[in-house]
């Protein structure tokens, strides 16, 4: 969603701001803008549409050394030039960029209008700019503090003022902000990707904190002006990881990276000789976790699908009753949290608003809260009691791929870690982690078949309705396969537990309709073969994902994609790979913008 970049230093700000905005593009946006400050001068340039449009409008030789840049994903008001950020106060001397939502925007707007303020835009952000302008008496930080005392809602925001040309004031409540620290310059961003080209040294702005940043200094205080001391931390991601490295799209790069990203995820965590899993992030809560009576997994989108697989894994390996909740539902439905309830939040970004709110709700009700998160230092990682990072590297493509398999891997590790402390025998644990350790290499083999999957995509790319069927562990995989196709190729696709097809969706099957069936070896294999027959007898075209060596299936399906054999709980790690590639090639064939699909955001930071 919206992205923030700020610069205050000795170099011209504009190239740094535009490059930062480019790095934030992947998050999804519909308009963009910059503000440049010099003594007694504030210049704002903004536009609806792509950064490339903004690039045509700005002067790359501009000498200002302080500025802000923003990508907007519309919430209040249409995505047009006027509603794009930055927003200024009536004097035109103060500019604000803002991620989040101001909830008392209506009341504040009415109040300010009665006071004679004329608004230019429909945004809630302009309300903040006008409020700051009203309070400004020569001290920007103080005016921001006063304004924020009037505001309720969420924000990650940055403010500049023509009267204080070497200062950026930033504030955070619920929407991430980091300060990049360099010699004689500081950067500000909502996402480390925007500043990695300049520095890996960062300070995370905490919730309820205000930062005042100049070229040589950053200072953090609470909303009530109490000083906050923070350590400088190092971002573990590199610039190369957020670049395309010769691939046509980030999504393809990230699909192909999975053998490496999962090897990274597993590194140092499994001991094949001992049959043991080591998860440093859980050490302090292992006693409490082992006593758990009830596990709740929560997340949104792809993370929710990973959680569904996790549910099956936890119940099978630990025998602890486990359920999965959409974070958005959980937070509002008065959830039952008893003594012994552990809530595990799954999130790539660690910034999804609903996932954060569900975790907060669970914590307030006394649950032990754990995070399964990719972005180190993200809000979820900080506010959970303990957790396990994915360590799969930055995911830039909006459609999640390597984060999904990273989530499955971490959930498998956690289930085994806990299972060993419950009912799982050493032999079973050794078998499980040995199979897990083979997954990266097995994925490599599937990726090598990418050309066959392109053929499948070519054959069906013009079809507007697809079904994805799976059973057991592969039911969530079917949901994930359908989601991938929907997200990036805008095709209507439904994922189902295969047996449910008979209870309605079978009515949709028409001659030649593509039906992807995950038919790998396992206890439900015979059942899924019956489902294939049901599809075929209604004219559907079956694309089967089957276990290597299964010759029989080729007689029943139009296309067969083979995956290597593994244990059933780990099958989704393999079966999802062809589904990711089918979705990718289909979207490319349909001319869709794979990495920036319409209407979607990488990280949904508003409700
Ligand atoms: C958005 C993204 C999805 C992602 C979901 C949850 O909808 O487009 O790809 O699965 O958010 O994101 P999270 O960062 O919490 O995993």
**Mean pLDDT value:** 95
Largest sheet: 8 strands, antiparallel
Specify the structural class: alpha/beta
- Based on Cα principal axes, name the global outline: globular
Helix content: 25-40%
Distance between the termini: 12 Å
User: pLDDT below 50 for ≥5 consecutive residues: which ranges?
Assistant: none
Bound molecules: 6-O-phosphono-alpha-D-glucopyranose
Task: Give a concise summary.
The protein has 607 residues and is of the alpha/beta class. 57% of the residues are buried. 35% of the residues lie in helices and 23% in strands.
Describe the model.
With 607 residues, this protein is of the alpha/beta class. The strands form 5 sheets. Strands 3-2-4-1-10-9-11-15 form an 8-stranded antiparallel beta sheet, covered by helices on one side. Strands 5-6-7-8-12-13-14 form a 7-stranded antiparallel beta sheet, with helices on one face. A 5-stranded parallel beta sheet has the order 19-18-20-21-22, with helices on both faces. Helix 9 (301-318) packs antiparallel against helix 16 and helix 15 (450-460) crosses helix 18. The chain is globular and about 80 Å long. The structure holds 6-O-phosphono-alpha-D-glucopyranose (G6P). The site of 6-O-phosphono-alpha-D-glucopyranose has 15 residues, from helix 9. 6-O-phosphono-alpha-D-glucopyranose (G6P) is lined by residues 300-303, 347-349, 352, 355, 398, 400, 600, 602-604.
